[in-house]
Specification:
Strand 6, helix 3 and strand 7 form a beta-alpha-beta unit. The strands form three sheets. Strands 3-6-7 form a three-stranded parallel sheet, covered by helices on one side. A two-stranded antiparallel ribbon has the order 1-2. It has a two-stranded antiparallel ribbon with strand order 4-5. The chain is an alpha/beta fold and 198 residues long. It is elongated, with a radius of gyration of 22 Å. Helix content is 23%, strand content 14%. The longest helix is centred in the first third of the chain and has 17 residues.
Length: 198
């Protein structure tokens, strides 16, 4: 119902912004800055007025994280090291991980989900104070439209950050996420790690 919006213009914008050359327009990349300039120029051609008559851009502080060089994950049995895991091949830290060093007993806690709105609590009954919690990623029944959570849409309480915060609130030292192989048996961990930390 708006003559100023045409299929040709939308197609041109889409093909430019979603092209492989734009590399996904990741934050703080030349491609992201180019996409922003492109959108600003489109706004200008359309006759949109900048905010407060000044600019099409809104500046803000962006906090980014980088993967440190001294990441180490070792598994011990009764004080003896039995396995030193390889960064990017066996494990990788999540980008909300803090700097620190922990050592403790590992306790399995299902999916690690705390969702009172669904009367669901994987951490209830387990004393995780001072322990490292091992949890499955994702959520139970995630491919089932009749799931007790949000059907086939991932529940907020199943996000890694929410799981980590729930475990932290209950006194855990750290959280280790492992792949739910029952629902994700064909995952490529090394590719996932490379995509996570570019």
């Amino acid at each position: 119902f708006n003559d100023s919006i045409t299929e040709a213009d939308l197609k041109a914008d889409l093909f430019f912004l979603a092209s492989d050359a734009m590399n996904g327009r990741r934050t703080d990349t030349p491609e992201n800055r180019l996409a922003a300039e492109y959108i600003a120029s489109r706004f200008q051609r359309m006759g949109l007025n900048p905010v407060a008559g000044q600019s099409y851009f809104h500046n803000y502080q962006l906090m980014t994280s980088t993967l440190g060089e001294e990441n180490l994950l070792q598994v011990f049995d009764k004080g003896n090291a039995i396995q030193r895991l390889r960064l990017g091949q066996d494990y990788y830290p999540l980008n909300f991980s803090g700097n620190g060093r922990v050592r403790g007993q590992v306790i399995f806690a299902g999916f690690g989900i705390v969702a009172p709105e669904h009367s669901y609590d994987d951490l209830n009954g387990d004393n995780i104070v001072g322990k490292i919690v091992l949890v499955l990623d994702h959520e139970p029944g995630e491919l089932d439209p009749d799931s007790p959570f949000d059907g086939v849409v991932r529940a907020e309480s199943a996000s890694p950050l929410r799981k980590a915060l729930a475990a932290q609130d209950r006194g855990a030292l750290a959280v280790l996420f492992v792949q739910d192989v029952h629902n994700h048996e064909n995952g490529n961990f090394a590719a996932e790690a490379v995509n996570y930390w570019q």
